[in-house]
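Record format v2
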Amino acid sequence: MRVADNPNALARFLIAPALIYIGAVIGIPFILSLWFSVSDVTVSSAAGRFVGLENFRSALGDPSFRRALRNTFLFAIVSQVIVIVLATTLAVALQKNFRGKWVVRLLILLPWVAPVSLGSIGWLWILDSIYSVINYGLYHWVHVCGPEPGMNSCPVWLGQPSLAMASIIGVQVWRTLPLATVINLGGLSSIPQDIHDAASIDGAGFFRTMFQITLPLVLPILLVAVLFGFVFAFTDMIVVWVLTRGGPYDMTQVLASLAFFKGIDGGDLAGASAVALFLFPVLAAAAILLLRLARRAEVI
Amino acid sequence: MSARETGGKIAHRGLIALFSIFAAFPFAWMLITTFKKTNDLLNPNRWIGNTVFVGVVVVIITLLLAVPAGYALARLSGTFGEQLGIGIFLTYLVPPTILFIPLAKVVSTLHLQDNLWALVLTYPSFTIPFCTWLMMGFFKAIPKDIEEAAMVDGMSRLGAFVRVILPMSVAGLLTVVIFTFTLVMQEFVYGLTFINSGRNFTVSVGVPSFLVRGDVYFWGSLMGACFIASVPIAFLYNLFVDRFIAGFTVGAVKG
């Protein structure tokens, strides 16, 4: 039988190129990164020496690493908690039909569709130390801070560690909100109308329907959205790179950006691989959870 | 209309307006605060050209590899195929930030440092898994009878796939093209790592690397261009959003 007719041979023939490509650009680098993390390889050295767990040990002993680890969790968890609340609110609001809904959906998708680095520049400008439009508003309209004597000086959004962290989290919320909203909307629209009708006949109000019927039904899908958002936030460095470069004084560094500055700017490929690999256990856990959720949701 | 209903309606509109402003404000602000571009060394048009070049080649690679793989996963294998499909989807979760360090070494070994082909070769690492998964869902929705009828008419299975199924799948292929192109336009980490010189940057790396240098902001037409370029893509996303959700929720939401 020819390959074109034999189902199994054909399947292998059709799927092999994709598998080989993925193996070459994901599998091999991943194995390399495992090797790098236990070696002393640098950008300029041809091949490294085996050094055991030395890189991991020195990473754990480094205060800026420990801070980055803490920041990564803070950044991912806080941003996604805010995203859940906002995305659910927005998805419920968008479920209703109203004039101009289409345009609103378009606007809301923009932060996700436009290159993140460009959107972040818009925020950089908004949060700038001199030209901040927020501070302009606080001074001219609300009169709570400003350059006049007797007034508090306005916040330096990206220059004070806690404000810088809050700013980065805020921009991450801005950028991942569309994805979570859209996934949520999909979940909401898959609830049959009869359920809502039955609830309203039984006299359930808006909030009762929301918390006792709608939310429990969309929960699996909501969790899928959250997990994706968490994975993206956990492994991301774009917002940090554009807004603060990890500063002031490494106070807003996350694992991914620390690995970048160490490995690419600093040339320490071994140390950077060790730092980046700290992302892996959390990713693996998220993947397992995601699959379980997907299975359960499919059963429903 | 009762007062309560009117109040609800106002609250609803207010909420929608608030979210719309939150989403669009940074873009609007970029357009408002347009400054004259004074640096002639930078050529943003070149960055746009680079982005389009990388985007087009990556779209071609992705179509050639992900579409057949998606078909094979949808049709020709049982439980093993399903597990393989999940495996491919999981590779989408492996972030560039774990792979960029070893890849930097690979790229420099291949002498592709500061070369757009480094991006062309690495970007399919995230476009192929996602698009294979998308196409798998798409092909599953096409009834099997269609190929079987074509095969009864004397076509081979491969022939039925190429001449009957593919022409029916234009919407799916278009989705792949849009998502691949958007992912390429968005990518930042590999671009920042593999490319060193200003002339080879893509838009998403070139703009933040150069236009913010030394706390002097050069905005100009590029920002407007980027914003305007994003709108049609948001438009297309809006049309294809259901398929996009299906891709992300591992088929948990049925459209």
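Chain B has a mean pLDDT of 81.
Chain B has twelve helices and no strands.
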